[in-house]
Amino acid sequence: MKYLIDTSALVRIWRNEVDPVWRDVAGRGLIMISEPVLAETLVSASAKQYAVLEEELRETYPYAGVPDNIWDFVAVVRRELVPHSAHQGLGVVDLIIAATAIRQRLTVLHEDGDFETVARFVPQLRQRRISAGPE
Questions:
Q1: How do residues 16-50 score in pLDDT, each as one tens digit?
Q2: Are 19 and 48 contacting, i.e. CB atoms less than 8 angstroms apart?
Q3: Pick the CATH number of 3-132 from 3.40.50.620, 3.40.50.2000, 3.40.50.1240, 3.40.50.1010
């Protein structure tokens, strides 16, 4: 199984707050990263650390590009949530990550209940909490 990491899971890996087996999973290239997560993560880096941290992330996690026309697919996901009043807590970055994971057949790796909510109403989304350990 290949994963698309969310910032909530990435932070927990950095802080060593997860089962160490996740580092092995990442080392085998099974956890991918996308531009929205890079942007969210790097916003807290100092100017001196920025390039080094970005390079480290890109070396550790294979890059999953955001598909063309992702906004059309984001709109589809968002509209699926509306009839269930499940659209209000989901941020733009999470919508892009969810849509990217669905389009690329990846499992979102997270520690964020919003992805569980999306998966309830958009069954194409596969998701896994990092605290649950790998499958």
A1: 999 999 999 999 999 999 999 999 999 989 999 99
A2: no
A3: 3.40.50.1010
